[in-house]
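Subject: design request, 106 residues
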């Protein structure tokens, strides 16, 4: 990976921490797409994301209150469905004194 100076980041984003977070989010998105065989990259996904950031191809806009509320409610709904499925599918059996440990053959 080539060296990227802080000054180069500052030209695109005045906050270097925000710039690196944006590049990291893009790298994660690229890695997910690579794992699903949707894209192929000519270089390392981290380097590719950082260079896209430096070229100004990645834009950042904070979420609006409505978008944040929609994401939060969707996550809570998914978590509650997962908890209900775990509760319904789980069976608990009391261990008896003569029981063998799980995974042992008779």
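Subject: RE: design request

Done. Sequence follows.
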């Amino acid at each position: 990976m080539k060296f990227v100076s802080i000054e180069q980041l500052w030209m695109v984003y005045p906050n270097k921490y925000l710039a690196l977070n944006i590049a990291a989010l893009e790298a994660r998105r690229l890695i997910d797409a690579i794992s699903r065989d949707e894209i192929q990259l000519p270089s390392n996904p981290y380097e590719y994301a950082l260079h896209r950031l430096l070229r100004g191809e990645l834009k950042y806009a904070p979420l609006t209150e409505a978008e944040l509320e929609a994401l939060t409610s969707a996550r809570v709904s998914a978590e509650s469905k997962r908890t209900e499925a775990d509760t319904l599918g789980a069976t608990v059996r009391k261990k008896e004194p003569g029981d063998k440990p799980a995974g042992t053959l008779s």
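The mean pLDDT is 82.
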